[in-house]
Write a structure and sequence with these properties.
This protein is mostly helical. The protein has helices spanning 3-31, 51-75, 82-101, 114-140, 151-170, 176-199. Helix 1 (3-31) runs antiparallel to helix 2 (51-75), helix 1 (3-31) packs antiparallel against helix 6 and helix 2 runs antiparallel to helix 3.
């Protein structure tokens, strides 16, 4: 299979996975009236009624990240930071799977539990690795003849997302649910954009 054909396939698969994650995450905000979406982090919805839909959504997100990482790895000609970007996306995909499978600590518990600590470390790893991967990958676009035109959209969005993550992490007065979901939305937007660009790679001569 030609390289661009394979990359377009990765892009389509990524878009489907990301769309399911977005749809399941949004739907559960309405199906779970026991949580206030402004204050409840997305991880809370991974436990309790209808949680299997979101657990599947997290695995779909991991698939989307994996496909974007692999597609961009194969779709760019420049060797600049090639392995670094791929490693960050693969790390993110693995961390997302851990987040989905290991339950977070819910309000009213007895304090930090082992599984809650593992969930927190995995979530932190996922956020940091994907936003760093977005920055590194976007920077790579500058040195590639085909992808250079996407730099002006990809890099500022990655930069805003990375800054937003630090604002969310350091400014604890912000509503935890809404601010976390805003960062997730920016991440999904960047992944969707790059997935779409993968699907539009020209056919090989």
């Amino acid at each position: 299979m030609h390289r661009n054909t394979a990359c377009r396939g990765w892009g389509v698969t990524a878009m489907l996975g990301l769309a399911y994650f977005f749809g399941s995450s949004l739907t559960l905000q309405f199906l779970r009236p026991d949580y206030d979406w402004v204050n409840a982090p997305l991880s809370f919805y991974l436990v309790g009624p209808d949680s299997p839909w979101l657990i599947a959504g997290f695995f779909s997100l991991a698939l989307g990240v994996f496909c974007v990482g692999l597609g961009l790895h194969r779709g760019l000609e420049t060797p600049l930071l090639r392995r670094t970007a791929l490693a960050l996306f693969l790390m993110d995909a693995a961390a997302i799977c851990v987040v989905a499978l290991v339950q977070t600590d819910l309000p009213g518990g007895d304090g930090p539990s082992t599984h809650g600590i593992v969930h927190y470390i995995a979530a932190t790893t996922a956020f940091l690795s994907v936003t760093l991967g977005m920055l590194v990958q976007s920077w790579r676009f500058r040195a590639d003849s085909h992808w250079r035109g996407h730099f002006r959209k990809a890099f500022p969005l990655a930069l805003v997302t990375f800054a937003g993550l630090w604002v969310y992490g350091l400014w604890h007065e912000l509503p935890r649910g809404a601010s976390e979901k805003a960062v997730i939305l920016l991440i999904v937007l960047w992944l969707m954009l790059t997935s779409r660009w993968l699907t539009r790679l020209p056919p090989e001569a």
